[in-house]
Amino acid sequence: MEANRRKFLRIGGTCALGLGTSKVWGVFAEDFEKPAENSKALGVGRWGMAIDMKKCWEKGKSGCRECILACHTSHNVPDIGNRKEEIKWIWTEKYENAFPGRLSGLEPPDLREKPFLVLCNHCENAPCARVCPTRATFKRPDGITMIDYHRCIGCRYCMAACPYGARSFNFKEPREHIKSELNHAFPTRESGVVENCNFCEERLSAGKAPLCVEACKEQNCEAIIFGDLEDPESEIRKLLAAHFSITRKPELGTKPGVYYIIQGRGHA
Amino acid sequence: MLERALSGSSRYYKLLGVLLTLMAVGLAAYLIQNERGLTVTGMSRDVSWGIYIAQFTFLVGVAASAVVVVLPFYVHDVAAFGRITILAEFLAVSAVAMSLLFVMVDLGKPSRILNIIFYPSPGSILFWDVVALSGYMLLNLFIGWNALEAERKGTCLPRWVKPLIYVSIPWAISIHTVTAFIYAGLPARQYWLSSIMAVRFLASAFCSGPALLIALCCLIRKYSRFDPGKDAIGKLATIMTYAMLFNLFLLGLEFFTAFYSGVPSHSESLKYLFIGLNGHQNLVRVSWLFVVLAAAAVVLLLNPGTRQSEKMLLGAAGCVFASTWIEKGLSLVVAGFIPNPLGQIYEYSPTLPELIIAMGVWAVGFFILAIFYKITISVKSEAAR
Q1: CA-to-CA distance for B284 and B292, rounded, in angstroms?
Q2: Do A186 and B150 form a contact (C-beta atoms < 8 A)?
Q3: B57 with B330: CB under 8 angstroms?
């Protein structure tokens, strides 16, 4: 009897171990860079954005927030109403906060006082995606940093890793705080998951430009330019080739995909 | 052997009763957090980790109690530690159990915790830390339990346990290293972006683990028939002294680089901790308390007279434990987020529910510890007879 039970346990244990290893094997054998089917169809190298701040300040109406509104309404971003738990995909910061450590103190007052648009940089070398313990945050082959709201465990490691403060965590149930009309075409989120700007991937796959870009265009401002950073013929590449631009914290090696044109077009 | 946990003195039952009550209160607070979300805590989008992750970090250190005893005993034949190896291993088990629970209570979506295993991410340090910690907990559980069983039967350790013991030694180094890597690899946080982080974690682990073990040994001697031995406690005190000095030396190195280089991003968090930044000084008092406790520990430990008196040694162990708790279990984590990556300052203070949940997790750990120690002491005093 004793020998039989021992034998049974031994065989059972070996089987369980075998099943366990198959899972581990899967991890290392897996191809991490499976291309998403859609992006190939679009034939895009890497999506990127250029923001001409001077144009935004000079041509935009004073206190214009159309890009932020367009984004936040369409993406069902809740208005939590306190700074501590704020959810934001695109917002404004002062120069010294958008580019900390860069302030000499003698810049033109405009530069120091006026708002800079900030959002997820969709870094090529994204720390948030690197640290995610479940691969809920991942890089798409077209450069977009995406998050799977249904896989995220809410550990907030990505928030510790993001050098741009671009990630928001749902500290409470967000649906009760959506002040605008609900957009049924885009998912709402649950309490306990992280979210960030998705470069309007839902619109890109339908062949449309991101909402912030559209909203800016509607204001006859066109301060936000969007396009393929890997295509030398794209509008954004031509613009960046013709004007001096900076990215946020380039020294960290994250390779941001959002560029800021400082010496505006028509001023060079 | 497990049945020995069920019968004990009334003092034992009272202890379990108190711990169970604290656990129940913690659970109630956790249910509220689970219902309302992490909004019940003091964490924010700027300070996105708080007391939970700090406790996790500190308790991984306490788990070093096992290796500081196991390494000398099994590799260098330091016989004095033979009496306390099992105690040290079970302390490590409970410390790691608490660490893992602290990660669990910090999650926004705890129900999805298995996603770490379902979608393993070799690129994520947190994934490796969960692997390292669970492995270390199981190793110590197996080793401790088998050693105790051998002691009960009066036989020597089963042969297959020996390799596990040798594996557990580098594994212990790995848990501190990997936990340090969670912090030391983030470009966004200059305060943590330091290559000596792993060594600092090892140093503070090698003093906080023995500190708690010394206190527990003294308690056991006082309240049970089992005597862990003066010699073992004395040797632990030596290890703790060296580790504490090294720990403070390494912290000093951080100060040198931060302030002599003059690079603002390297010194801002330290300034926030010790003098306050732009008028924000939530942690200044507790940081200076750290300095006082650490200094007291050094004085008590370096002076042979005080180190060899049991009462003074207990006081020194208390100072070591409390000062490393302030440094690893609070300020290291919080100050990493201040200022935030945009150079703004938003402070953090834990809320009452957050503290109650943390207390509940500590109670779980001490409950596990009480049960294991009860079994161990029963077996050991029977074997002695």
Answers
A1: 13
A2: no
A3: no
> Which residue does chain A place closest to B265, by CA atoms?
A101
Q: How far is CA B271 from the centre of its chain?
A: 26
Residues from chain B that touch A252, judged by Cβ atoms under 8 A, are: 187-188
Among residues B194, B12, B197, B167, the alpha carbon closest in space to that of B74 is found at B167
Instruction: Look at residue B381 in the predicted model and tell me its pLDDT.
Output: 87
The angle that helices B352-384 and B10-36 make with each other, rounded to 10 degrees, is 150
**What torsion, rounded to 10 degrees, do the Cα atoms A97, A101, A107, A110 define?**
-10
Are B272 and B338 in contact by the 8 Å Cβ rule? The answer is yes
- A169 touches B at CB < 8 Å: yes
Q: How far is B216 from chain A (nearest CA, A)?
A: 33
Please name the residue of chain B whose CA is at the shortest distance from the CA of residue A95. Answer: B342
Q: What Å distances lie between residue A153 and A101, A122, B46, B264, CA to CA? A: 33, 21, 19, 34
Whether B358 and B52 have beta carbons less than 8 Å apart is answered as yes
**Residue position matching structure tokens 């947190």:** B126
The partner residue sitting opposite A171, judged by closest CB among B37, B46, B337, is B37
Count the Cβ atoms, other than its own, within 10 Å of residue B315: 15
Q: What is the pLDDT of residues A25-71, one digit of tens each?
A: 665 555 555 545 554 455 689 999 999 998 999 888 888 999 999 99
Give the strand pairing for A47-52 and A258-261.
Answer: parallel
B260: exposed, middle or buried (C-beta count within 10 Å: 0-12, 13-18, 19+)? exposed
Distance, in Å, from the CA atom of A26 to the CA atom of A33, rounded to the nearest integer, reads 14
> DSSP readout, B201-266?
HHHHHHHHHHHHHHHHHHHHHHHSS----HHHHHHHHHHHHHHHHHHHHHHHHHHHHHHHH--HHH
pLDDT at A18 (0 to 100): 76
Please give the residue that has the higher pLDDT: either A61 or B163. B163
How many cross-chain Cβ pairs, A to B, lie less than 8 Å apart? 151
Report residue A130 as tokens.
């690197």
Q: What span, in angstroms and rounded, lies between the C-alpha atoms of A233 and A231?
A: 5
Q: Hey, which residues does A118 pair with through a beta bridge?
A: A91
Q: A40 and A150 in contact (C-beta within 8 Å)?
A: no
Categorize the per-residue pLDDT at A80 as very low, low, confident or very high, splitting at 50, 70 and 90.
very high
ipTM score here?
A: 0.93
Contact predicate B232/B83, CB 8 Å:
yes
Please report the domains of chain A, with CATH numbers, ordered by start residue: 41-261 (3.30.70.20)
Tokens representing residue B51 in the block: 């007391």
Q: Where are the alpha helices (DSSP H) in B43-153?
A: 51-62, 65-70, 76, 85-106, 115-118, 125-153
Residue ranges per structural domain of chain B: 1-184+351-380, 229-347
Using an 8 Å CB-CB cutoff, list chain A residues near B116: 133-134, 153
pLDDT at B338 over 90: yes
Q: Could you tell me if B347 lies within 8 Å of chain A, comparing CB atoms?
A: no
Q: What is the CB neighbour count within 10 angstroms for residue B361?
A: 25
Q: Does B262 touch chain A (CB under 8 A)?
A: no
Among B91-105, B154-168, B344-358, whose mean pLDDT is lowest? B154-168
Residue B9: other Cβ atoms inside 10 A: 11
